[in-house]
């Protein structure tokens, strides 16, 4: 269910890389608010950077995203379900499509509408509690495949003056995700009972939309914390006039 992270990281890394390098690589188009359409400029640069994300772009502080590895995350649903995810490996899709992008630099607001044809992930999990109609207590390998993933993302921030210079401060994100289908396999759900494990996975996949809705709040909280932390780390180093030159 960590697919939201993968959904956002490549696009936001493109936008971060466009803005943050003190000395932009020659393949990047400089986006100057007074002289260009910022929305179109950002979209053009995303297309330039997309094929480079596989191996990462060290000079722009962008890591490799094929795969992206999340060391650990904890998920809790009420008082009845707890799970720990370790070494979540998310394979960057070969392509993602930005259908719409609107940036308001004055209000420090960004809207992105995007879609990803397929996302594949592997992980090690441990869980305990009640999920759907099952009482679970297991650990093992997990696999997930999602197809036709869509999301609308709105990010909010503000400008903060420090020593006479304005800096961007990331506040929050609203994320509206939707996926057409999910296939999930959790191995060893019932230790030494493959038949029960297979039946549980069948139940999960037959109720995939229910699971996605149930896990949304917990997963989005993790995603927001990671993205805000990542982007804040960059924005703290560069003033606004470095990010968007006014000349």
Automatic annotation (TrEMBL):
GO terms for cellular component: extracellular space. It comes from the Eukaryota. It holds the Pfam family JHBP. GO terms for biological process: circadian rhythm. Residues 1-21 form the signal peptide. Keywords: Biological rhythms, Signal. InterPro entries: Haemolymph_juvenile_hormone-bd (IPR010562), To_sf (IPR038606). PANTHER family: CIRCADIAN CLOCK-CONTROLLED PROTEIN-LIKE PROTEIN, PROTEIN TAKEOUT-LIKE PROTEIN. Belongs to the TO family. This is Uncharacterized protein. It comes from Psylliodes chrysocephalus.
